[in-house]
Write a structure and sequence with these properties.
alpha+beta, 6-stranded antiparallel beta sheet, 5 helices
């Protein structure tokens, strides 16, 4: 059975927890063939990445979809989330995905494109000009 997956994750932490969290992340990731590219970026074997950094009064951590998929595949996703749960944090961005194969997807996409071109779908609360920001790829 398919389920919704997290395809991108961005978290923020109080600035003063960044050093300890980065240390714990380094220990956790040392069990896997993850490469530390610089002090703020870890590269995963399948091309994904984990980025950290300080922004104002917060420490930020983000993981790409490929990095999350790697952790899920290694059975380490729950361990990663448990590590995060030990720290005060906020989920500032999460992309969720649910892939479904459907024989009539072309028909659905054409209908969705037509509706979007007529301004019937909003991606934000602001108006999006279909002529400037909508491209038909099929």
């Amino acid at each position: 059975m398919r389920s919704v997956i997290c395809d991108y994750l961005k978290l923020t932490f109080p600035k003063d927890e960044g050093y300890a969290l980065r240390h714990d992340l380094t220990l956790f990731l040392s069990s896997y063939p993850v490469t530390l590219i610089n002090e703020n970026y870890y590269s995963f074997p399948d091309g994904g990445g984990l980025r950290t950094g300080y922004y104002g009064q917060v420490f930020m951590l983000s993981l790409s979809g490929a990095a999350l998929e790697y952790l899920r595949g290694k059975g380490a996703y729950s361990q990663f989330l448990a590590l995060i749960a030990d720290y005060t944090h906020r989920v500032t961005l999460i992309d969720a995905a649910y892939d479904v194969y459907n024989d009539d997807s072309g028909v659905r996409l054409r209908r969705l494109y037509k509706q979007a071109a007529n301004g019937k779908h909003r991606l934000t609360r602001k108006h999006i000009d279909p002529d400037k920001h909508l491209q038909k790829l099929f």
